[in-house]
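Study this:
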Amino acid sequence: MLKVVHYLHNQNIAHLDLKLENFLLDGNFDLRLIDYGLSVRVQGGNNQLINLNVGTPGYKAPEIYTH
């Protein structure tokens, strides 16, 4: 899973809805990440702050709801 996310980040892509349900195994048992509907291309490198309220509510960190 970390390799998949690392690859996306190297491509300047933030998935924004990472959860176990979005990882599948293909016929060769290779891990695949699906559901790129909320993903965004990040401009300006990996240090850009993405200030969007997206994702599956049950998977969000509690501190998201305190701001």
The domain at 2-66 is CATH 1.10.510.10 (Transferase(Phosphotransferase); domain 1).
